[in-house]
Amino acid sequence: MIPLPDVLLRLLIAHVLGDFLFQPKRWVDERNQKHLRSPSLYFHGMLHGALALVALWDLSWWPVALCIGITHMAIDVLKSYQARSSAKWFVLDQVLHVVVIFVAWSVVAGIALIELFDTLWIDRRALPIVLGILLLSRPVSFFIAVFASR
Predict the structure, then answer these.
(1) What single string gives the DSSP state of each residue in the chain?
(2) Cα distance between residue 120 and residue 32, in whole Å
(3) Poorest-confidence range of 12-16, 83-87, 112-116?
(4) What CA–CA distance (Å, rounded) separates 113 from 74?
């Protein structure tokens, strides 16, 4: 079995790959125009499910990967109905995706989510993961804003 902190890290990497590296802009544009009638929405959901399955590295966890793919599609289609894209909707979208990943991680671990957070806090190997998630949650956006402003 993959160590628990590694499972979380792999699922987060799969998410970043699926949302930022493997998703063409035309998929997003099509989803925003056609919503549930967008084939790209379904390709994107299947991609996230497949990436989650690869991250878990165990075919017996296919129901978890399927749930990740389906919830990813549901979150994205809800976002597509917003009149215009904004930072607020982008952040909400990503937070919801990460919440799903944490719940999936809890299911794979077979223990309550709060106990997993205790594990992260105690396990020194997991502390860099916690720091990375915290840094990416808000501080990095401040740095980007400072460097991107005139």
Answers:
(1) ---HHHHHHHHHHHHHIIIIIS--HHHHHHHHHHGGG-HHHHHHHHHHHHHHHHHHT-GGGHHHHHHHHHHHHHHHHHHHTSSS--HHHHHHHHHHHHHHHHHHHHHHHTS-HHHHHHHHHH-TTTHHHHHHHHHHHTHHHHHHHHHH--
(2) 37
(3) 83-87
(4) 22
Q: Could you read off the pLDDT of 114-134 as tens digits, one per residue?
A: 887 777 677 777 778 777 777
Are 44 and 76 in contact, with CB atoms under 8 Å apart? Answer: yes
Tokens 């995706």 sit on residue: 97
Asked whether residue 14 carries a pLDDT value surpassing 90, the answer given is yes
CA angle 64, 40, 62 (to 5 degrees): 15
Tokens of 3: 């160590």
Amino acid at site 95: V
Write the single-letter amino acid at 41. L
What are the backbone angles phi and psi of residue 24, rounded to the nearest 5°?
-70, 150
Mean pLDDT of 55-64: 95
